[in-house]
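Thanks for the sequence, V.! I ran Ferrous iron transport protein A right away. Repeating your input here for the record:
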Amino acid sequence: MQALSEAKPGEDYTIKWMLGLPDVLEFLHSRHVEEGGTVRVIRRLSDSVIIGVQGEDVRLVLGDGIADRIKV
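Predicted structure:
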């Protein structure tokens, strides 16, 4: 298991667990980023990661602080 911030671009990952403030988790869940869901790492930036949610037309940029708390 690794942090989403360390995941390899171009690969699909299943989210194992997530930690964070309730407001942040609620926002992510509303965008279908949740435990058991699949995301694709599109690109790694210097201090963030761009992900796409499988089965949805959703793209998100997550800062490393948040991506570190999502384990895949």
